[in-house]
């Protein structure tokens, strides 16, 4: 599609930016769906983030941005308003510039993750879920799972204080979900790695797959490698696995909707 003076300009803010795959994925979707928008990569050092974001907000055809490593936790303080889930996760991965120049932040990691499960016919309502991690992605996943009406959520994180603080924020929104900070993954229908463990070959496992009940579904946020050591071990036990690419693919659709203003603010 030709870029013209009418084209909505979007950016991805990252540092480094060379490894990101969102520009090619989203620009291909814009072309396929005849959306007059373009997403360009911007390598933004942390020290320049505020200056660049405030500057972009001053441009009337700047429609918004995708935010990734290392800016996801710094951006909430730079937005004028946040979705409830971004406030609960204390993390933002998409920004929309509103007509008055203000910036609205949201996080779509949780929606992408839960839709990725639903697309392979996994029902979440009533389930007991174990989640490793309490960072940005895991917090957003915890929020989205709770919105889907799960029965119980056990959160295990290296820094226990972060798991406990997340549970306090979630409990204020979802009084019917049983939350616990604990490390034993036994007794759950679904067990999720929401940490960055598994990206590097030397990483340990986020939880012990041998402790899971037979019948537990094991899901990942890590996309590369596709089959992480956790998924390999789960498969060896005969458990069903769900790799991280489902989350990314589902999230692209959510990003397209959000960045082109087709979604209501929550
Ligand atoms: N598939 C997708 O579409 C998708 C989307 C977003 C993110 N992701 C993946 O999700 C992962 C997490 O992203 P994020 O934004 O949530 O990062 P983050 O906010 O930095 O959180 C990292 C999490 O991993 C834990 N962790 C890191 N190193 C650890 C270690 N050595 N031992 C134990 N726990 C460790 C952290 O524990 P502490 O709190 O104790 O530090 C925290 O819970 C990334 O690897 C990213 O690739 C995937």
Describe the fold and architecture.
Helix content is 32%, strand content 20%. The chain is an alpha/beta fold. The chain has two domains: 8-106, Rossmann fold (3-Layer(aba) Sandwich), CATH 3.40.50.10860; 110-246, 3-Layer(aba) Sandwich (Rossmann fold), CATH 3.40.50.720. The strands form two sheets. The chain has a six-stranded mixed sheet with strand order 2-1-3-5-6-4, with helices on both faces. It has a six-stranded parallel sheet with strand order 9-8-7-10-11-12. A hairpin with a 5-residue loop joins strand 5 and strand 6. The radius of gyration is 19 Å and the shape is globular. The model has no long low-confidence stretch (mean pLDDT 95). Pathway: Metabolic intermediate biosynthesis; chorismate biosynthesis; chorismate from D-erythrose 4-phosphate and phosphoenolpyruvate: step 4/7. InterPro entries: Aminoacid_DH-like_N_sf, NAD(P)-bd_dom_sf, Shikimate_DH-bd_N, Shikimate_DH_fam, Shikm_DH/Glu-tRNA_Rdtase. Pfam families: Shikimate_DH (PF01488), Shikimate_dh_N (PF08501).
């Amino acid at each position: 599609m030709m870029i013209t003076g009418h084209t909505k300009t979007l950016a991805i803010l990252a540092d480094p930016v060379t490894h990101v795959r969102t520009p090619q994925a989203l620009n291909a979707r814009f072309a396929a769906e005849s959306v007059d928008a373009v997403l360009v990569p911007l390598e933004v050092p942390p020290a320049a983030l505020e200056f660049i974001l405030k500057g972009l907000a001053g441009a009337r055809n700047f429609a918004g941005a995708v935010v990734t490593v290392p800016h996801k936790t710094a951006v909430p303080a730079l937005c004028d308003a946040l979705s409830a889930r971004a406030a609960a996760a204390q993390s933002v991965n998409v920004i929309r510039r509103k007509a008055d120049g203000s910036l609205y932040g949201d996080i779509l990691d949780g929606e992408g993750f839960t839709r990725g499960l639903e697309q392979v016919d996994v029902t979440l309502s009533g389930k007991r879920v174990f989640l490793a991690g309490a960072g940005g992605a895991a917090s957003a996943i915890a929020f989205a799972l709770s919105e889907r009406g799960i029965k119980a959520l056990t959160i295990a994180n290296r820094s226990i204080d972060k798991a406990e603080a997340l549970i306090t924020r979630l409990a204020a929104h979802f009084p019917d979900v049983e939350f616990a900070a604990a490390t034993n993954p036994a007794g759950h229908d679904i067990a999720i790695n929401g940490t960055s463990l598994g990206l590097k070959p030397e990483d340990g496992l986020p939880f012990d797959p041998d402790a899971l009940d037979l019948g537990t579904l094991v899901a990942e946020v890590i996309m590369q490698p596709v089959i992480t050591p956790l998924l390999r071990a789960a498969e060896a036990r005969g458990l069903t696995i769900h790799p991280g690419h489902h989350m990314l693919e589902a999230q692209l659709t959510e990003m397209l909707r959000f960045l082109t203003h087709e979604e209501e603010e929550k």
